[in-house]
Amino acid sequence: MLKTDRICTWILILALALLLPSTQLVKPVDELTVIALIALALTDSAVNSAWRRYSLLWVMTGIMALYAAYSITAVSYNTPYAIAVDYLIQLKPYIAFAVFVAVGPRFTDADRRILRAIAVVNAITAAAISAFSNQTVQLLIMHISIVGITAVISFAVWLLCSIRPDGSISATDKAMAFMLLALGLPSGRAKFFGTCVVCLYFILVYMQIRRPIRPSRQLLTAIVVGGLVAAVGWNKFRFYFIDLGYDLRGGGGGIENLARPALYAAALLIMISRIPFGSGLASFASHASGEIHYSKVYYEYGLNHVYGLTPAQPDFICDAYYPSLAQLGLAGVALFIAFWIYVAAKLRRIRRTLAQGKALFAIAWIIILFMLIESIASTTLVQPPGVVSMMLLGIICSATPATYGSHTSGNQS
After folding, report:
1. pLDDT by residue (tens digit) across 205-229?
2. 183 φ/ψ sector (left φ>0, alpha ψ -120 to 50, else beta)
3. Which one, 148, 296, 367, 410, has the greatest CB density within 10 A?
4. Is 356 helix (H, G, I), strand (E, B) or coil?
5. pLDDT at 70 (0 to 100)
C-alpha cells in the first residue's frame, strides 16, 4: 500500500529546507512540489481507490478549469499558454492544502526534530543574509521581506512540533519560538510587525485563557487585536493608498509607488464591469499577465503607462494578491471567502474536540492571518512560503481525535 502520509511529510520537509533557496536560486521548487502532490493524489486514488478522499482537490481544480476555459473562450485577454501557467500558479496553495487535508500526515518524533532544526537554520540564515548589502539580499533571497516571512514560518513550525500530548506548549518552547520570530525584525516591514501582534496575542494571551470566552468578548478581542494590527501598518497604508506613494512630509516617494494603488483601483473597476467571473486567468495582477505575456487588460484600463506596469517594465504587476482576484470576479471573491469559512469551521471543530485543539487552533489562525496580511502587499500566498504555510494548515485541519487524542483521552499525537 502507498504510504501517502510519509511521502507528504518528506515533501513538507524538503519544501521547508528549500524555502530560502526557492525564493531566488531554485525558483521552480513550489511548482515541482505541487506537481508531486498532484501525482501523489492521482496515484493514491488509482492504487488505493481513494478518489473520494481527494474530493476537495477535484472540486478546486475543476472550478479553476472552468475559469481557464472561460479565460480562453469568453474574454481571451491573454494567450492559452499564459492562462495555463496562471492556472497552476493560482491553484498552488490550494492544492497543497487539499492534499494534506486528505492525507492527514502525522509527525514522528524524528520528523519533529528535523522540522525544528530546519526552522532554526532558516531563521538564522535569513537574518544573517539581511546583514549584507541590498544587492546581496536581492541576489540570494530577492527581497528583505523574505527575512520576516521566514521568521514567521519558522515560528509556526517550531510551535506545531512542540505541542505536548495534553495540548500545552512549554515556556521554553514558547521562548525559543519568539526568539525565531525576533530574527525577522531586520525585515522592517509593517506586514511583519502586524503578524507579530497576532503571534503575541494567540500564544501569550489566547493560549493562557482557561475558560470559554463569551461571544461579546470574542468580538471585543477581535476588534482590539485588529486595531493593533491596523495601527502598526497605518503609516504604510496611508503612504500607498492615501498619499498615493508620496510622503507629504517631504520624506520622499514618487511615481514608482503608484503601481499598487493603481492595481487596487483597477481591480475594483474590473469586478464591477465584468460581473460575475472577472477578466479571466493571466489577465491582471498576476505573474503570467506580465512576465509570461503582457495582458490586454492593462491597455484597456490605461495601466500600460503606469511605472512598473508597462510592457517594457512590468516589475510591479505581481505586487499584491488581492487585486489578482479581479481575474476571478465577484464569483471568485465569494469562493475565496467560502474557502476560509470552510477552514474556520474545521478549526472550530478541532478546537472543541481535540486535546491539542486549542494549540492547533492558535497556530492555524497565526498562519491564516499571516497569509491574509501578507496578501495586502505581496503575492506570498502563491509563492513557496505560501505553499509551505498551506501544507502546515492542511496538517492542522486534518487533525482528528483518533490521531491527536480527544479532550478526555489525552493520547499523544
Report:
1. 888 877 666 666 666 777 777 777 7
2. alpha
3. 148
4. coil
5. 97
With 0-12 / 13-18 / 19 or more C-beta atoms within 10 angstroms meaning exposed / middle / buried, residue 200 is middle
CA distance 413 to 406: 10
Cβ atoms of residues 144 and 137 within 8 Å: yes
Q: Residue 327 and residue 333: Cα distance in Å, rounded?
A: 10
Which amino acid type is present at position 112? R
What's the rounded Cα separation, in Å, for the pair 41 and 57?
A: 9
The pTM of the full predicted model, rounded to 2 decimals, is 0.91
Does residue 149 or residue 315 have the better pLDDT?
Answer: 149
H helix or E strand, kind and range, residue 337: helix 329-353
- Of 146, 90, 138, 186, nearest to 390 by C-alpha is 90
Alpha carbons 317 and 264: distance in angstroms, whole number:
11
**Cis, bond preceding 276 (omega within 30 deg of 0):** yes
Q: Which whole-number Å values give the CA distances from 190 to 142, 227, 230, 250, in the listed order? A: 18, 14, 10, 20
Q: Which residue has the cell 489578482?
A: 324
d(CA 158, CA 193): 19
- Residue 161: how many CB atoms within 10 A of its CB? 18
The 3-class secondary structure across 302-317, one letter per residue, is: CHHHCCCCCCCCCCCC
Enumerate residues 6+ apart whose C-beta is below 8 A from 62.
none
Q: What is the pLDDT of residue 408?
A: 42
Q: Tell me the pLDDT tens digit for each residue of 98-108.
A: 999 999 999 99
Sign of the C-alpha dihedral computed for residues 120, 23, 140 and 135 taken in this order: negative
pLDDT at position 413: 35
Q: How far is CA 175 from CA 25, 159, 160, 169, 171, in A?
A: 32, 10, 14, 10, 6
- Digit-coded pLDDT (tens) for 168-208: 999 999 999 999 999 999 998 888 999 999 999 999 988 88
Residue among 394, 382, 381 at smallest CA distance from 98:
394
With H, G, I as helix, E, B as strand and everything else as coil, classify residue 342.
helix
Whether the Cβ atoms of residue 159 and residue 370 lie closer than 8 Å to each other: no
- Give, in degrees to the nearest 5, the angle at Cα 412 between 411 and 413: 120
From residue 389, give the alpha-carbon distance in Å to each of 3, 58, 100, 218, 244: 22, 21, 11, 25, 31
Is the distance from CB of 310 to CB of 304 less than 8 angstroms?
Answer: yes
